[in-house]
Amino acid sequence: MITSVTLRATATPTAPALALRPWCADDVGALVGAAPDPGLRSEEGALRWVRAQERGWADGVRFAFAVLETGPGASSSARPVGNVVLKEVAPGKAAAEVGYWTAAGARGRGVAPRALEALTTWSLDVFRADGLERLELLHQVDNPASRRVAAKCGYSYDRTLAATPPAFPLDGHLHVRRAAG
Fold first, then answer.
1. Is the sign of the CA dihedral 147, 151, 153, 154 positive or negative?
2. Alpha-carbon distance 48 to 46, whole Å?
3. Which residues contact 123 (CB under 8 A, 6 or more apart)?
4. pLDDT in tens, 49-80
5. In angstroms, rounded to a whole number, what is the distance separating the alpha carbons of residues 153 and 9?
6. Whole-structure pTM over 0.90, yes or no?
7. How would you class 132 by CB atoms within 10 Å of its CB: exposed for 0-12, middle for 13-18, buried for 19 or more?
8. Alpha-carbon distance 175 to 124, whole Å?
9. By C-alpha distance, which of 109, 66, 118, 62 is closest to 90?
């Protein structure tokens, strides 16, 4: 059972290094101010979401990481600037899904692709022995930023998925990255 992991992404010439670690109750205040989901913009909603992420870790089926900028050039508060998640992972299951978001104030600094690459590498390394062969990334067709992040991280466009309202009101793109060799 995986109880806690910290992943790292190196700094770039224009952005500080990243640390990815499991979400915790201490992150609720930052989550309220950073998350793009309206359901996370209250302390009650954010705490409920954090507790769900903690249960996902405990159950070994969902691994959500708070993304923090660290080192020179980072904010001294070390507050989360994004989220990456591996979900729907299970022993013997060949595919799992990845997802991410970046706080508005942190966009344009390569947070999403660097965090996604760290998560991707870790996921395929750790869960390959359990049968994980590919990761799937989904986004709405009207999200060119997510399309660029997918491409930067080696996720190939697979196909367009039909909308399924109300949860997914627009068509989506499915991108796939397969384990090497």
1. positive
2. 5
3. 63, 86, 89, 96, 98, 132, 135
4. 999 999 999 999 999 999 999 976 665 557 89
5. 13
6. yes
7. buried
8. 16
9. 62
CB 99 within 8 A of CB 111: no
What tokens were used for 125? Answer: 């390394």
**Residue where the block lists tokens 């799937």:** 136
Give the whole-angstrom CA distance, residue 181 versus residue 166: 39
d(CA 46, CA 54): 12
DSSP-derived secondary structure letter, 33 = H
Residue-by-residue DSSP string for 47-101: HHHHHHHHHHHHHTSEEEEEEEEESTTS-TT--EEEEEEEES--TT-SEEEEEEE
- Cα separation, 79 vs 92, whole angstroms: 36
Question: What is the token pair recorded at 42?
Answer: 């209250």
Nearest to 109 by CA among 149, 142, 157, 156: 149
For residue 111, with 0-12 CB atoms within 10 Å meaning exposed, 13-18 middle and 19 or more buried, which class applies?
Answer: buried
Instruction: Give per-residue pLDDT as tens, 113-169.
Output: 999 999 999 999 999 999 999 999 999 999 999 999 999 999 999 999 999 999 889
DSSP structural state of residue 166: T
